[in-house]
Design goal:
The protein is an alpha+beta fold. It has a domain at about 20-55. Strands 1-2 form a two-stranded antiparallel sheet. It contains two helices and two strands; from the N terminus they run ββαα.
């Protein structure tokens, strides 16, 4: 952790999954009905490509996601 007069910054870590073999994982998920292992979101880049091609996905609407970037002064 670092602190200054204008704020503080800390570095942390957490355990996250990294799939090495999607075929094995997909087989496990299907065989065990383990859909809870997957996150429910549409791939952003694939969606943008389809949108540019004029293809609309049923049940999907675009929204503007805000970003906040912090920089030192």
């Amino acid at each position: 952790m670092a602190r200054g007069t204008k704020g503080s910054v800390s570095l942390g870590s957490k355990l996250v999954p990294a799939v090495q073999d999607w075929d094995l994982l997909n087989a496990y998920i299907l065989e065990n009905s383990a859909l809870h292992l997957l996150e429910r979101r549409v791939a952003t880049n694939a969606y943008r490509e389809m949108q540019k091609a004029g293809i609309e996905l049923p049940g999907v609407v675009p929204f503007a996601k805000s970003n906040l970037n912090l920089r030192s002064v």
